[in-house]
Amino acid sequence: MPLALDVLRSAESWDPGTAELIVLAGDEPFLVAEMLRWLRRRFAGGTPADGEPPDDCAWREFDGTALADPRDVFDEAATLPLFGGAGVTRAAGVRGADAFVSQCRDRLEDLAGRDRGGRGVVILEVRSLPANTRLAKATSARGTLVDAAVPARCDLARWLGAWARERHGRALAGGTADRLL
User: Which end of the chain is more exposed for a tag (fewer CB within 10 A), N or C?
Assistant: First the structure.
């Protein structure tokens, strides 16, 4: 399972694969937000100067805690984008999807094992996904389960310095990174 820290460091070389399901599992909001931003650019196409897609026609987010009908998510991902053209994949993201996963586990296990083909992708943000579940095994076999937590043995100050240099062109002294953290 790739770590979000590693994926974000070399995002252009990471391939989210062709599965219909991508799961971001972890409790670090910054990593989840950055992964969602990267996936949004990747699937919705185009990257103007502000870093957001030019048109949101291929991206829709749902609140997993207030989702009335789970079919809305699957329908959104299955609908072909009307606008956008080549390189655009319809994406339906579910934030806070832990209850959604419990409710739709069978359908999600099926999605995890299938190729998108011409269909869209479902992206889930969950606090945790136990490794011994069928859903976790199917998702990690396809490489689309990303660990969005900060590992216990991580030099986060060093990662932050590299992030500031690579993403923003700014040098960050070690003491400054420690104070920010």
Answer: C
Q: What is d(CA 9, CA 150) in angstroms, rounded to the nearest whole number?
A: 14
Q: What span, in angstroms and rounded, lies between the C-alpha atoms of 105 and 110? A: 9
Write the pLDDT tens digit of every residue in 69-91: 889 999 988 887 666 565 678 88
Q: Write the single-letter amino acid at 7.
A: V
Residue 25 near residue 128 (C-beta atoms within 8 A)? yes
Mean pLDDT (whole number) for 84-106: 85
- The tokens for 150 are 């900060």
Largest CA distance in the chain: 50
Looking up tokens 């502000």, which residue turns up? 50
Rounded-to-integer distance, Cα 132 and Cα 135, Å: 9
Angle of helix 134-141 relative to helix 105-112, nearest 10 degrees, comes to 20
Residue 52's SS3 state is coil
